[in-house]
């Protein structure tokens, strides 16, 4: 077989895959569009009425909603039990409507308490209660569409199962622009440059398919070209302005839009003074070096005290790119893997900073908000054994698990404990009933015997002394109570295959990674009975190959604008990072496919990258 023939076959497969993906995306968009309710105002109201009681209308600049639309939206909210309604303009342009339908599944987002809030970014109707709890009574009102997009994400957190969307024919909006498009993408947590590069790559792929595999290439191009008309043409509700014109010119408009978005000026730092202060603090802290962040290396295993552990892995910080190198060692006797030398408390504070809160808060929330299926599976594990009444989630972070677990156990009281400030925000949102901030062992005496269920999900590996955490759980649990633990599985084959790029190593945050047998022995010694252990069912679906690509890309080109960066943030370094991220796009696509296959195999063989264990504290 000649090289040209092999290349042609590959192109046909790629074109066939493009047709499949475009077809599936078109069907999905039609389904989501059909799920969007359309407001039907009863008709014009005579004289203007007083402001609608119980509701606040928040609009972006240039957006206008007539009184009939506002009252229809309030009526829709009352019928559906909603506290937040995002109003989608019926005359939104075609590409903006399609982009919204890619992000928003109205049915799934309504029922998924952890799904991040998405909206059109033009108008929001908010109940008095949510308006007050979210602090909007004293907040500065939104001044742009991007502000409104950020606001709907916040409001969805305060009304996790009472946020909805409706098409509003009476809503008028200004025309879109490339600079505003880039700003809106950033507000959604999406990188404009990377998405524009991916769009250009997609157009180039269609041209390649047309040349090398005309039959499939024509099908893929036609489906892409006609997608706006197929999705939006015969639909009720949205009536995009110039749909026929936009459909006819779609490839040219897509090319122009991607180039103009790439050329749009970079966003101004929202808090330039804060960024300067943060950079100065990191610079001062790093001037003394990173050696002071480490304790002396220990010669034995912290789990079983066996001597002479072996080096398993050495790696820099691939998560944030902060300076320092870290070593994981493995006990030759029990298989326990631990950071050696271990970080001091000051070191942990340094490397945790701006990861879950601060600069990294939005990214962490985005990841945690996409794990609802995992959260529900954890909560369901108790169903054959008990009905929880009082549940303490240790290491709860922003309490995404507790928020999702309420759909499984609606009558359970969920409390959360964590070191970060986010635990108090979780209480204000209503995701947990009571927030405890501090170290679990320090609070154990105060909470002794209060809970019939305690959970530790991907928490124990972060702690300095896992035994002290287990002893705290013994104190806090009432006799007969249940302890649910989920951890990375250090014996996962992916860990050896991917080396330092296996995400669950998670250096420098993970201090201990223990095989399930070790944990079972430790719990049995503390008076627990092991009820169930899951391996395949606990597998994290995107924790292997997708995580490896992300770590590799970040390692090749760390963010030069990070306040802890030790290299100048020159245009060349920024361009190099953008280039690496753009080249990683096809690798992400391949990694997603590999992770899907890996998940199927993990479920079938009961050998994933994590394990989940449920134990009962015996009476007496």
UniProtKB/TrEMBL annotation:
GO terms of molecular function: methyltransferase activity
Single GO BP term: methylation
Tree of life domain: Bacteria
SUPFAM superfamilies from the UniProt entry: S-adenosyl-L-methionine-dependent methyltransferases
Keywords of this entry: Methyltransferase, Transferase
InterPro entries: SAM-dependent_MTases_sf
Name of the protein: Class I SAM-dependent methyltransferase
Species the sequence originates in: Streptomyces decoyicus
């Amino acid at each position: 077989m000649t090289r040209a023939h092999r290349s042609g076959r590959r192109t046909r497969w790629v074109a066939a895959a493009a047709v499949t993906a475009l077809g599936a995306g078109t069907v999905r968009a039609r389904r989501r569009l059909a799920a969007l309710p359309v407001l039907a105002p009863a008709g014009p109201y005579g004289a203007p009425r007083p402001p609608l009681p119980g509701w606040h209308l928040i609009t972006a600049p240039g957006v206008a909603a007539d009184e009939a639309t506002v009252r229809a939206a309030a009526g829709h909210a009352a019928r559906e039990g909603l506290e937040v309604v995002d109003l989608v303009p019926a005359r939104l342009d075609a590409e903006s409507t399609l982009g919204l339908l890619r992000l928003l599944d109205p049915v799934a987002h309504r029922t998924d308490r952890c799904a991040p809030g998405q909206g059109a970014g033009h108008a929001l109707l908010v109940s008095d209660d949510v308006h007050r709890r979210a602090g909007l009574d004293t907040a500065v009102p939104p001044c742009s569409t991007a502000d409104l997009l950020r606001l709907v994400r916040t409001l969805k957190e305060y009304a996790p199962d009472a946020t909805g969307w409706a098409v509003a024919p009476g809503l008028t909006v200004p025309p879109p622009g490339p600079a505003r498009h880039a700003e809106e993408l950033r507000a959604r947590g999406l990188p404009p440059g990377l998405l524009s590069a991916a769009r250009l790559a997609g157009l180039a792929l269609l041209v390649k398919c047309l040349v090398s595999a005309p039959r499939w290439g024509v099908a893929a191009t036609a489906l892409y070209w006609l997608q706006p008309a197929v999705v939006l043409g015969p639909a009720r509700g949205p009536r995009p302005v110039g749909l026929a014109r936009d459909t006819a010119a779609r490839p040219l408009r897509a090319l122009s839009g991607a180039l103009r978005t790439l050329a749009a000026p970079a966003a101004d730092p929202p808090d330039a003074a804060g960024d300067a202060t943060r950079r100065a603090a990191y610079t001062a802290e790093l001037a003394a070096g990173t050696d002071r962040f480490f304790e002396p290396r220990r010669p034995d295993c912290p789990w079983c005290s066996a001597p002479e552990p072996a080096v398993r892995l050495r790696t820099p910080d691939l998560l944030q790119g902060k300076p320092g190198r870290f070593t994981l060692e493995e006990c030759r006797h029990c298989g326990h893997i631990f950071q050696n030398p271990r970080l001091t408390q000051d070191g942990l504070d340094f490397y945790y900073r701006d990861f879950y809160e601060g600069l990294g808060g939005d990214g962490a929330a985005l990841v945690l908000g996409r794990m609802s299926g995992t959260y529900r599976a954890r909560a369901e594990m108790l169903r054959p054994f008990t009905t929880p009444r009082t549940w303490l989630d240790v290491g709860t972070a922003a309490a995404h698990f507790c928020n999702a677990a309420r759909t499984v156990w609606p009558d359970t009281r969920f409390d959360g404990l964590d070191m970060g400030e986010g635990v108090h925000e979780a209480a204000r949102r209503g995701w947990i009933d009571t927030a405890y901030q501090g170290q679990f062992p320090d609070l154990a005496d105060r909470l002794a015997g209060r809970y019939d269920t305690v959970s530790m999900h991907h928490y124990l590996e972060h702690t300095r002394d896992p035994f002290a955490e287990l002893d705290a759980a013994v104190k806090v649990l009432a006799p007969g109570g249940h302890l649910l633990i989920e951890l990375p599985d250090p014996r996962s084959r992916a860990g050896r295959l991917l080396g330092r790029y296996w995400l669950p190593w998670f250096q420098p945050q993970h201090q201990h990674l223990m095989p399930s047998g070790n944990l079972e022995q430790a719990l049995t010694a503390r008076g627990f009975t092991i009820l169930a252990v899951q391996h395949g069912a606990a597998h994290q679906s995107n924790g292997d190959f997708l995580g490896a690509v992300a770590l590799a890309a970040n390692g090749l080109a760390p963010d030069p604008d990070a306040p802890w960066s030790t290299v100048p943030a020159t245009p060349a370094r920024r361009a190099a990072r953008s280039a690496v991220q753009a080249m990683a796009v096809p690798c992400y696509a391949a990694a997603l496919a590999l992770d899907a296959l890996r998940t199927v195999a993990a479920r079938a063989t009961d050998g994933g990258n994590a394990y989940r264990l449920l134990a009962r504290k015996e009476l007496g």
